[in-house]
Design a protein that fits this description.
The complex is a heterodimer of chains A (about 350) and B (about 270). By secondary structure, chain A is α/β, with parallel strands linked by helices. Chain A is about 45% helix and about 15% strand. Chain A has 3 domains: about 140 residues, 3-Layer(aba) Sandwich (Rossmann fold); about 110 residues, Nitrogenase molybdenum iron protein domain (Rossmann fold, 3-Layer(aba) Sandwich), CATH 3.40.50.1980; about 70 residues, no CATH class. In chain A, the strands form 3 sheets. Chain A has a 4-stranded parallel beta sheet, sandwiched between helices. In chain A, helix 1 packs parallel to helix 7, helix 8 packs across helix 13 and helix 10 packs antiparallel against helix 11. The longest helix of chain A is centred in the last third of the chain and has 19 residues. By secondary structure, chain B is of the alpha/beta class. Helix content of chain B is about 40%, strand content about 15%. In chain B, strands 3-4-2-5-1-6-7-8 form an 8-stranded mixed beta sheet, with helices on both faces. In chain B, strand 6, helix 5 and strand 7 form a beta-alpha-beta unit. The mean pLDDT of chain B is about 95. Classes of the chains: A alpha/beta (about 350), B alpha/beta (about 270). The interface between A and B is medium-sized, with 13 and 15 residues.
Chain lengths: ~350, ~270
């Protein structure tokens, strides 16, 4: 077993996106348990990240009666009740059960409720895995976009709201972009209001969280003509390349930014000289813990000798973003090496 | 000892007509009969109830929830005291009728309603999902009768149901077996021979041949079973004979479903001349 994104339930993936729309309510059409487990997981993760926000989730609480006679009426009732409280938008997710009995969610959601109501294809475990729900939510929310004029700036696509360092990673990308004189205009989707979903096509560059949503980068490119970079930067070399790529796409001279960043990286490397020459064993959730280009880079820079019996250096998945991410990682490795010594 | 039988077969083949007449013939023998219609169309017991569509277990569940249902609410007395139950189900095209059958059995079980000298389960045409196999599960019907005519589509459906019976009968505590084939004839040439041969090929036997007769439609128009409407008719005699053989039947088997090609070539042998 693992907690990989290629497993798990589509609901969790979709909720990781929809609950990041601050004024939205997400309806789970299914048994109470489906909502309970997801609510608990999201709430616990938010607490872990020191947010006290309660995820905006409600549930149709289906029971045997609805399974036998159909759950569409229960869903319609809950959408009306929810819409009466005037949320910015309502997202509707389907569970295994309602997909098995054939409730027609798109038809129920297509009625007029006075607020935007949007069905996100999920279907619980039947509909795919965590990643499917995450990707489907990101794609479906693009229906809220306005084909307005471009206002420039960068749009971040698909930040992993459940990852531990989500905001540190965001700050690192913002810092790197600021070296080029650019700002993040839209976080699609993290801590934004429903109205901001309209701005999806307005940036001059989309940066995807990682290449697993390459398809969305292409889709938004064809919808809005926005060029995209397929990943946040990882590793020292990757971070420099990121600056070069952004500069090239936006026609900005990146040489000064690169110079500044290289200087910063040298400082980081010199700060961790005590780790140099360590015998290390890379471990972690990821199957690729000891087979990542970023780890190759670390081995080269710090002259690590990989050995099964070496000091255990945990490689998180994903690897923290940018130069600052590597700096935090080196800090953690140093702590664990001290703890061992 | 309580006898628990179920009739399965292609939709429209005459399961309900056969079940109702079988129940009527059995009650005339002085037996206590419970007939349970397991089809959302809810018309299994209609002739026994003189045309009345009785409230279904699912209607009551929908209106009251499962707490406020009593035996009197779901069991209705029909011809000769046959006790009639209809499972019912959701509106066509919504929800899950199979789950409705499972819920019905749970409710009937809780009410202690499943007792009689003979319980007759009349089940929807095809065993489309686990729900409609419910009557074959442990504790319910132990003797399955396949109702079929000599038409290929009807034999095909019967053969398909054999697959369900064969699968269920391999389970450890399963007491569900195939008890025989009832030929509800369409008056095709060599039909009795064909259905008899089919029964042998699936490791069973034809227990009763019921000819096609207008009297069935006439009785139906009068909202009666043939047993009640025309007790002296030859058709009524066929149903009484069926009732007799069902009561005497000691032989139950695990069916061996035919390959579709074999089924077709067998039917062809009888039809070609």
């Amino acid at each position: 077993m693992s907690s990989s994104r290629s497993e798990g339930c589509t609901l969790t993936g979709a909720l990781s996106v929809t609950t990041a729309v601050k004024d939205a309510v997400t309806i789970i059409h299914g048994p109470a348990g489906c909502a309970h487990h997801n609510f608990s997981l999201l709430h616990a993760l938010e607490q872990e990240n020191d947010y006290s926000r309660v995820p905006g989730i409600v549930c149709t609480n289906l029971r045997e009666g609805e399974v036998i006679f159909g759950g569409e009426e229960a869903l319609e009732r809950l959408i009306r009740k929810t819409a009466n409280k005037s949320p910015g938008s309502v997202f509707v997710l389907s569970t295994c059960v309602v997909d098995t009995i054939g409730d027609d969610l798109p038809a129920v959601c297509a009625q007029d409720y006075g607020v935007p109501v949007c069905y996100i294809p999920t279907s619980g475990f039947l509909g795919g895995v965590f990643h499917t729900g995450y990707e489907n939510a990101l794609q479906t929310l693009s229906e809220f976009s306005n084909k307005g004029e471009q206002t420039g700036g960068v749009t971040l696509i698909g930040e992993k709201n459940l990852e531990f360092e989500v905001d540190q990673n965001f700050q690192e990308v913002s810092r790197l972009l600021s070296l080029l004189g650019i700002e993040v205009q839209l976080r699609y989707v993290r801590n934004i209001s429903s109205s901001r979903l309209a701005d999806l096509g307005k940036g001059s560059l989309n940066i995807l969280r990682d290449s697993s949503i390459q398809r969305l980068g292409e889709k938004f490119h064809s919808m809005f003509g926005t060029p995209f970079l397929d990943s946040f930067p990882a590793g020292f070399g990757g971070t420099i390349q990121f600056l070069l790529d952004v500069g090239e796409i936006l026609g900005i001279d990146s040489s000064k930014a690169v110079f500044t960043e290289e200087h910063f990286q040298k400082k980081v490397i010199s700060k961790f000289q005590d780790l140099k020459g360590s015998v290390v064993s890379f471990t972690g959730q990821s199957l690729y813990a000891d087979d990542s280009p970023v780890m190759d880079e670390m081995i080269e820079i710090f002259d690590f000798s990989p050995d099964e019996k070496g000091m255990e250096f945990i490689v998180p998945d994903p690897i923290p973003v940018g130069t600052s991410g590597i700096s935090r990682l080196l800090h953690r490795w140093r702590r664990s090496s001290h703890a061992r010594a | 000892m309580m006898k628990q039988i179920a009739l399965y077969g292609k939709g429209g083949i005459g399961k309900s007509t056969t079940s109702a007449n079988l129940s009527a013939a059995l009650t005339d023998q002085g037996l206590d009969i419970l007939q349970i219609g397991c089809d959302p169309k809810r018309d299994s017991t209609r002739m026994l109830m003189h045309g009345r569509l009785i409230p279904t277990v699912m209607d009551l569940l929908r209106e009251r929830g499962d707490r406020n249902i009593t035996i009197e609410d779901v069991v209705f007395s029909g011809y000769g005291g046959v006790r009639c139950v209809e499972a019912g189900g959701p509106e066509p095209g919504v929800g899950c009728a199979g789950r409705g059958i499972i819920a019905t059995f749970q409710i009937l079980e809780k009410l202690g309603a499943l007792h009689a000298d003979v319980v007759v389960y009349d089940v929807l045409g095809d065993v489309v999902c686990g729900g409609f196999a419910m009557p074959m599960r442990e504790g319910y019907a132990r003797e399955i009768y396949l109702v079929t005519s000599g038409e290929l589509m009807s034999l095909y459906a019967a053969n398909n149901i054999c697959k369900a019976i064969a699968r269920l009968s391999t389970r450890a505590r399963s007491k569900c077996r195939l008890a025989g084939v009832i030929c509800n004839a369409k008056n095709l040439p060599r039909e009795e021979e064909l259905v008899g041969e089919f029964a042998r090929r699936i490791n069973s036997r034809m227990i009763q041949f019921i000819p096609r007769d207008r009297i069935v439609q006439v009785a139906e128009l009068n909202k009666r079973t043939v047993i009640e409407h025309a007790p002296e008719s030859l058709q009524a005699e066929a149903y009484r004979s069926l009732a007799q053989r069902v009561m005497e039947n000691q032989q139950t088997d695990i069916p061996i479903p035919m390959e579709i090609e074999d089924l077709e070539s067998m039917a062809y042998e009888f039809i070609k001349e």
